[in-house]
Amino acid sequence: MEHKTLKTLEYDKILNMLAAFAKNEDTKRKIQELVPSEDFRIVEQTLLETDAAVTLILKYGTPDMLRICNIKEQMKRLQIGGSLNMAELLNLARILKNARTLKRLTWEQTGILCGYIEELVPEKAVEDRITSAILSEEEMADDASPELYRIRRKAKNAASRIRETLDSMIHSGYYQKFLQDPIVTMRNNRYVVPVKAEHRADVKGIAHDMSASGGTVFIEPEGVVNANNELHELEVREKAEIERILMEISQAAAEIAPELELNFDTLIHLDFVFAKAHLALDMKAVCPQLNREGRVNIRKGRHPLIDRKKIVPISVRLGEEFDSLIVTGPNTGGKTVVLKTIGLFCLMTQSGLHIPAAEDSIMPVFTDVFADIGDEQSIEQSLSTFSSHMKNIVRIVSRARENCLVLFDELGAGTDPVEGAALAESILEHIRAAGAETVATTHYSELKLYALSTPGVENASCEFDVETLSPTYRLLIGVPGKSNAFAISERLGLPKEIIDRSRQRLSEENLQFEDILTSIEKNRQTTERESQETIRLRQEVEVLRQQLEQEREKIEKQKDKIYDRAREKAEKIIERAQRETDAMLEEAKAARKAKDEQEQLRAMEEIRRQLGLKRKKNKSPKVRTAVQAKPAGVNINTLKLGASVMINDLGDKGSVLSVNKKENTAVVQVGIMKITAKADNLTLLEEEEGVRPKTEPPRRSQTGLRRGEVKAEVDLRGMMLEEALMQTDKFLDESSMAGLHTVSIIHGKGTGTLRAGVQNMLRRHPQVKSFRLGKYGEGEDGVTIVELK
Hints:
This protein is of the alpha/beta class. Strands 12-13-14-10-15-16 form a six-stranded mixed beta sheet, sandwiched between helices. Strand 19 and strand 20 (673-678) form a beta hairpin.
């Protein structure tokens, strides 16, 4: 790119804006050297880098990067075995810390910048050695080395002894009359006291300095000379140790010199990329879409150097239906701003910068951009002058070629209008023949007609409000503009007869052309007003539609609320009815249970009565004696589980299932019934063959098992399901072989898992005919009664 073009389009001011966002001086120097690239791939790469940095900042914030200084000279010194000072080493530590900080970013965060992040080489050991040893650019830590710590401790003690000696001296009544002030100060790095000049001989020691007036002599008392000498020696040793530590750290840095240089270059580039991202965010810019066909399509572009509160966005296209654009309109109407916006956007794009425009803006990569714009005064001051630079035009014409952009401001102006128009038309033809794209501003009607009659050339105009005599700065593509000289002059008060004579001097063709332009402008304004009215009506319809939609949603929400309230009310009614039903069922169950208990009590009383009659008929003298003898009951504390007992009032035998010492009761299994009896109603039976009456031995089943040898129940409580199923299967087989018809499986209530597992097994067991849960008195849900085949 030509330097003149960069200056004409004020590219340097964009670089200054960009440099303000850089953190490092090397980055700012790099920015000032930035020039637009002609390589499509480089432009594409740099734009993607800027876009990735913008995304990173928006999502995660700006990475925390410390300011760093150039290390090129330091690296040369390290390569020849030199030593760096504390400030230079701290700069290396900052470089390593920046590398380590950026290295934490993941690939998803950095996108196309991932390659640069991967290049960074953090060296935590060297970084920690520097930061732990060096506190600031002029101070080293006491614990930078054990030797430095010992030296500084000794120096501190020596200084403390010197001050104690001098403090006692200046507070002494003898010396106070000799001293100018009772203070201790330093001269030539040695502790001294200020002595009056006339008492110089009264204070023995070494004089190191004298005040400007000569009235005070600074004397080092001989009592502290040796201590000062020791302190000075320690200072020399301290300095030597610091130099040794710096050399040691410098040697460690020299070992990673290539990594440090790579880190520095990468960090400067990343700082440069993030500066471009910050500029894009500040300008509310977007990444343009690139193309290789020379197409320009700027949508709502805003010149970055014009006050953002005053700028009017423009939309302009070039290189699609036409390759040349003729922009007309009155002075100060914004024609020069259009030229500079197009040219500057091209330079910014090819420098990897985002452009302040709307999304989907399209920019090409030109080989060169040429500009001849007025006297190049700043548009920031709203100044726009128009003078011809034929020398500049000659240079442009000689260099214009394919894939170039040429910008002309007031082409052909400053000379005879007829000759100037003809010359301008010829220049445009030559530029087009060379294959370059052109945007030119003019007041010549001939160029407007040229654009109307030439394929590939299009008119454009900067809109001007004649009523207010002010430009709107809107660019209208396809509409030739008017200079509006007559209208502006008439509005400003020029006599009408002068204006009429001026019109008469115009040729008939010019008048017809101006009338056509006026008619086109009126039609355009009418169409635009109708279009705006249509847009307004469409917006009103859209607002009404949204309001209706909101009302509909509101009604739907209210309907949903009504349904919800009705549903809640119904659920409450159902819940209340359910509670009432449950209560009634509980009451019915309790009544039935009470009735069943009464029936069972009556049945038990009947059984007792029948048993009593039976015993009266069949009892032997031995048993009668036992019955007539009043049983004394059993001791509940000695009663064991499984013991055989007699229930005295029933006369039935059974085995003890459980004992409740607190209530003095026991649960006794009598056949398939479980009876709770008081301990004093039980008699413990002894299993002695001598007293057992002779009866017929129990019959054996076909398998050889006796019924008495197999219990009619099994207790599974406390077992795991698998163990319980094995025990149940064994129990059922033995019960079947023993000829039992009904057995009980005690599984307890609990969570119901054991009961469900057992009953699933019973459904498939070949020995089981049927099964049911126990009834009242049989254990209820905690027992399953099984009928065997």
